[in-house]
Amino acid sequence: MGAVDGSTFEQTVRALTRERDLYLRLLELNMHERIEPFLADALPLIVETSGAERGYVELYDTDDRGCDPRWWGSHGIPDEEVEDVRKQLSSRIIARSLANGEVVESASAVHDRRFQDLESVRRNDIRAVLCAPIGVRHPVGVLYLQGRVGDTPFGPDDRRRVEAAALHLGPLAGRILERYHERAASDPTRALREKLGVRALVGRSAALAEVLNSIQFAAQVDASVVISGAAGVGKALVARLIHDNSKRSQRPFVAVNCRSQGVEARLFGGSDGAGLIAKADGGTLFLEEISELPASAQTRVLELLENRAYVAGDGSRREVDVRVLTSSSFDLKELLNDNALQSDLYYRIQVLTIRVPALAERVEDISELAQHICGEICEEHRYPRLRLSLGAISALESQEWPGNLDDLRASLEKAAHAAVQQGLSMIERGHLFPERQDPRRGGEATWQAATREFQRSLLEGALSECDWNITETAKRLDVARSHIYNLIKSFKIERGPGA
Questions:
Q1: In angstroms, how far is CA 278 from the centroid of its own chain?
Q2: Domain 362-491 maps to which CATH number in 1.10.8.60, 3.30.1600.10, 3.10.180.10, 3.10.20.90?
């Protein structure tokens, strides 16, 4: 009898420990300022706590409840099935929970008369389902869990924990939505973005708003424009946005790097006379790094600007209607003094000027930029969704980026590869700047590096003393088992021979 009581007591302690960990981690979610990372952190937490196999979460803005969700995320659901969850299941299971403000539960949806006629339920053989509204009086979203580890139904304790989690997520999500609206209301780029249809230029800073304002003006006229700024700031993107918002938007946009070999022949054509200028007829010709253009080619471009005509490679004289945009990473006045740029051409090309700021001038945009670039990298390499930890974002914002966006992207791509190789879903500071994280390598001994080294040592000792029993190690260190597995992957700890 005593053994049974002891076992029951131990199970109770474990359950209480899991719930304590759940509430502590829910409180940590309040640190988020943006909705997408909040959802990406919240969903795996609930899936793990409930023992579910898959999860889906969606949030509505206060003004668009009942329409398509403005934000959503999934965990453990293959990409090809997410659309089923969003569309078909939302018409019944999710809609029922959201409309009634109550938990919808089924031991086996494929055998449940309420849902068995849904095509996706039959096709995917959906069994255990648990769906809870986020929020109480006015739900702001819904949490959907599907499948149970061991193919068993969700139990009363699972339901209670999920209900409690959804209840706590309500005010957290509400606060983040409020912050979202506050930022949107004070966003100096918002009106310009809507007018220009701009999505590619990421950020909300005043410096970026100035660029968007200049793009708007330049798009309305047909004058030549010089786009200046350091390497990697996105000058080519600005040129493209000017074209796309101009009256020439339906005609060709032709970009030429003046540093490229044989650039003069490429522009004016060879013996057949077919060159890139001819291809740009009616549209926009963008000459990147104009100062790198050979002197002879500069003379011919000047003639193009003055007469809207040029001598092609076959010797024929051709009339052409093109708008010329140029860019430079250097001060054109200095290049003029160094005779790298002809003075007549200099005065012709800079009817309008747009200066694109460096990242150092728009530090407040780095967090959003990094999240955006990280998403592009994951899509390009078909990686699962990766998030940036708060420490990683802080490190990015304090870093100097001499190569600007190109530099930032390169660092994030390396970090993404490192995180995926370790089986992690979050990019940490150490993935971005590994030389700073390990004092044993002679790098910068930061507080974070020393803390991680202590954690590694403590974990290795506990694993050894518990003979690599993960459950016992988690008890000894008073953390969740899943966290132990994540730490083992993060620190690349391997079980030695005979251990």
A1: 39
A2: 1.10.8.60
